[in-house]
Amino acid sequence: MNFAIRYPSRLDKYIACDCNAASSDNNSKAWVARVSLARSEGGWSELASRTVERWFSAASLESQTKAVSDVRRMILCASVDGYVGCVAALCDFNLTEKAKGIQIPGLYVVGKCDGVLTEAKFAQAIPQASFVGIAGAGHLPMVEQSEAFVTVIRDFLGSS
Fold it and tell me: How high is the pLDDT of residue 146?
């Protein structure tokens, strides 16, 4: 979304997945708590478990799909310092007003089991934006429901 705002002449279309146009105070507080947990003794493993629980649908968690175990393993292999750096980009931002000026076609894709992101009300204010929810997916629809995700992306990219 930020790339579409800053460099629209470089794009014909853009796609944003499971994102928001602005961070909230509650979201920022949650990130601070996650960083604190990550830096605590044994916290990295606990953070990986909590993250997987937030990112996947109840059905995938219950059946412990390969995607769930793969993503948990991926998180555990990452570095705490790298995580902290990424968190800095997610704690305090607001693209809401600038996003309203995007004049190229955009697609916002979200897993229907991804909490408040499933509303994506901000996308309604963007002139050429469309919004699609992927059933049976949480925060990672490209992982959890990859076939449905690819179909949505292919349809959008193939449209004029």
Answer: 95
Q: What is the CATH number of domain 1-22+94-160?
A: 3.40.50.1820
Q: How far apart are CA 153 and CA 136, in angstroms?
A: 17
- Residue 109 one-letter amino acid: V
- Give the mean pLDDT per block of 10 residues along the chain (160 residues): 96 94 87 94 94 94 92 95 90 91 95 80 87 95 96 91
The whole-angstrom distance between residue 3's C-alpha and the CA centroid of its chain comes to: 16
125 within 8 A of 100, measured Cβ to Cβ? yes
- Quote the DSSP letter at residue 22: B
Tracing tokens 């992101």 back to the chain, one arrives at 117
C-alpha angle with apex 23: 17 to 27, nearest 5 degrees? 100
Q: What span, in angstroms and rounded, lies between the C-alpha atoms of 37 and 111?
A: 26
Q: pTM for the complete prediction?
A: 0.88
